[in-house]
Structure formats: structure tokens, C-alpha cells
Specification:
The chain is built from five helices and five strands, in the order ααββαβαββα. Helix 1 crosses helix 3. The radius of gyration is 17 Å and the shape is globular.
Length: 159
């Protein structure tokens, strides 16, 4: 999958047609409908991260699509250049289906999270933000994790 992601990024940056994937030639696990995020870093600094929260296509196609999108379409960054391709570190995260987490008061939520394990999708009306489990490495305290996620979503922290 990493090789496919890198090859797809390289082709897209060079404005070449992506390789067509024959689903009959890949493992059943890669043919399964799956959701993924592709995260790009250079020297540990985020360079792009795009994915889907819900599965809608075979996992291998999802990874290919999101690798290209992380390189060229992440609104936070300029598109990846040819010179950057060899420097890219690529991480692929396969998401499990989201599970609602029941709570009555916001103060209850931090105790329900499993740092380092849980990714979180936070929703408030039309606002939505997501942190993958890897974000726990930078924000190991559940309260900090949730406060930053609220900020990312555009909502006030500590609510």
C-alpha cells in the first residue's frame, strides 16, 4: 500500500495518469470496502492529510485516491512539488467504522477516551472535526486532545 501511495503521488505530481488497479489481482482484504486517511510528513512536519470517515469504495482505491489528495488537495498546504517526493514519509491509517460515544455532559467525555487508541470525530450541528489516534502523540491528555479538536472544528474549547 505504501508503494502504491508513493507511485500514485509521483504520477499525480508529474501530471500523469494513475495506474489502473485490477481488483481481481489484489487480496480480498484490499478489495473490501474500507475508509483510510493518508498522512504525509517531511522531516516530521505535516505536509498533507486527507481521508474518508466512512467507507465507500475498495480500500486499495481509497488509499490511492487519498494519497493523491493529501499531496495535491490539502487546503492547508501548497501542492507537493517534484523535489519533495523523495522526502515524503507516508502513513496510511485504515479506519474502523465510527461508534457513537454516549455522554451527558462534556466533562464526562475525557474519561471515556482511550489515549493512543481512539480517533475522535467531533460533531456540533454542521461543524465537524477529526483527529486520528496518532494525534495522541502530540496531545496525550484527553482534555488537551478534545480542546484542540474543538478549536480545529471552530468551536470554543472547554465546552
Amino acid at each position: 500500500m505504501l508503494a502504491l501511495a508513493r507511485q500514485s503521488i509521483d504520477l499525480a505530481v508529474h501530471r500523469q495518469k494513475l495506474s489502473k488497479i485490477d481488483l481481481n489481482q489484489v487480496t480480498p482484504a484490499l478489495r473490501e470496502i474500507g475508509a483510510s486517511f493518508v498522512t504525509l510528513t517531511i522531516h516530521g512536519d505535516l505536509r498533507g492529510c486527507i481521508g474518508a470517515l466512512e467507507a465507500y469504495q475498495p480500500l486499495i482505491l481509497d488509499v490511492q485516491e487519498h494519497a493523491v489528495a493529501a499531496a495535491l488537495e490539502d487546503y492547508r498546504f501548497r501542492p507537493v512539488s517534484e523535489k519533495e517526493i523523495p522526502l515524503l514519509e507516508i502513513e496510511i491509517s485504515r479506519l474502523t467504522p465510527p461508534v457513537p460515544l454516549e455522554y451527558s455532559l462534556p466533562a464526562e467525555l475525557p474519561a471515556k477516551l482511550r489515549p493512543g487508541i481512539d480517533g475522535v470525530i467531533l460533531r456540533d450541528g454542521n461543524l465537524r472535526a477529526t483527529f486520528l489516534p496518532q494525534v495522541w502523540e502530540q496531545l496525550p491528555r484527553p482534555e488537551d486532545f478534545l480542546n484542540h479538536l474543538c478549536s480545529k472544528m471552530g468551536a470554543p474549547a472547554n465546552t
